[in-house]
Amino acid sequence: MKRIKTIVLLSIILFTSSIGSALAETTENVAQENISNFDWTPVINAIIQVESNGDKKAKSGASVGAMQITPVLVSECNRILRRKKSKKRFKLSDRYSLAKSKEMFLLIQSVYNPLNNIEKAIRSWNGGNHYSVSKTQRYFNKVMSILK
After folding, report:
1. Which of 95, 91, 46, 94 is nearest to 69 (CA)?
2. Calpha distance 144→138 (Å, rounded)
3. What does the DSSP 8-state code read for residue 90?
4. Among 30, 38, 47, 83, which has the minimal tally of Cβ within 10 Å of its Cβ?
5. What would the pLDDT profile of 94-133 be if each residue is shown by its tens digit?
């Protein structure tokens, strides 16, 4: 009887773990599909206007480029790429490239904003993933005024 209980328990564990793996894979695929089908262009362009007025060589402290990207964001993008087993890596100098800056934005959104919430994208670009609504309100208003 004990052996049967063990076999049943192991079967349940294997079944639920395979469902969990399939669900995680499906969720990741849906998130990737959402990001690839969502047009972030207007939001990116508005952020560029607020951050640098389109100046690819803009500097403000550790933030540089048209989208004012920090070294921390570059590191986070590279951490995400490593986790995805990608050989691609961003360099700090890539922050001056508009195309690579946009790639970094899209990568961050695909991981931290898979539902493509525009407000979350704007606020987190300014205040990080654990942003404060009150501290990002002025920035959010500026970006939204350009979007409208």
Report:
1. 95
2. 10
3. -
4. 83
5. 999 999 999 999 999 999 999 999 999 999 999 999 999 9
